[in-house]
Amino acid sequence: MKYGYIGLGLMGGGLARNLIRAGKDVLVFDLSAEAIEKTLAVGTTGKAAKSAAEMATCDVVFTSLPLPTHLEETMLGEAGLLNKMKPGSVYIDVSTIDPQTARKIADYATSKGVDFLACPLGKGPAAAEKAEEPIFAGGKKEVYERMMETLKIVGNPIYYLGEVEQAYAFKLISNLIGMTNMAVLAEGMRIGEKAKIDPNLLVTLLADTGANSFQLAVRGPWIVNNDFANRFGVKLAHKDVRLGIEMADAFDYDAKFCKMAKKAYADAIEAGYGMEDCNAVYKVI
Description:
Layout lengths: L1 E5 L5 H10 L3 E5 L3 H8 L5 E3 L11 E4 L4 H8 L14 E4 L5 H13 L3 E4 L6 H5 L5 E5 L1 H6 L1 H7 L3 E5 L1 H31 L4 H8 L7 H11 L9 H17 L5 H15 L15
Parallel strand pairs: 1-2, 1-4, 2-3, 4-5, 5-6, 7-8
Antiparallel strand pairs: 6-7
């Protein structure tokens, strides 16, 4: 089986490298030559493509791209890859996009005889690199089952949520909660500073209370140590919160707290912290 992988960033790069480490025949493409070089360095079965169009011969194509528009530009339309892939091949996307775009892609893929599987991810780059990334799959059950062995190579555990809309909706809900928690944590740590509580002690003690969370455990110590290196950037956090709010609006639900978090990430971008980790929202709170 021949694989194609488009998008070798912090998340996609780790998954593509897992395929190469497993000895799979993988054709990779990214706009960054450095990202391609890093991915091919882990094994001998990977090869660089000159363009996404070269993936047309692959049996399975993955994409991991920042925005829904990037997916549409790459995959849809006369020049899109879905118009060139062979019937019976499988397209797997691990990006974070909105359910409406997902349905548009799924229907277009079906019209071209290509099976589409939505597989957004649950954790960060470290988990992606170790094939410990939770995968939340959506699409035709028979395609999900057919691709199970491939999915096990790139991530774990793997969950099936139903249609593509449910998979991406879950991912957006997860990121809405996680990124809003991050903003609340930053605010709490600022209040702790005002109360003259030692930041290290604050983080340690919060973990033993109802304030405990993934963000506290992972990003609390990073804030204390002024570590804002980009693992999941402010710009991506803002994008995901925006998409989640737009999804909620489409459901006629006013996500008030999430909208406040979105404003905080927008402020961080405006202040020049867009390419730092999402914990940099602390700098503007």
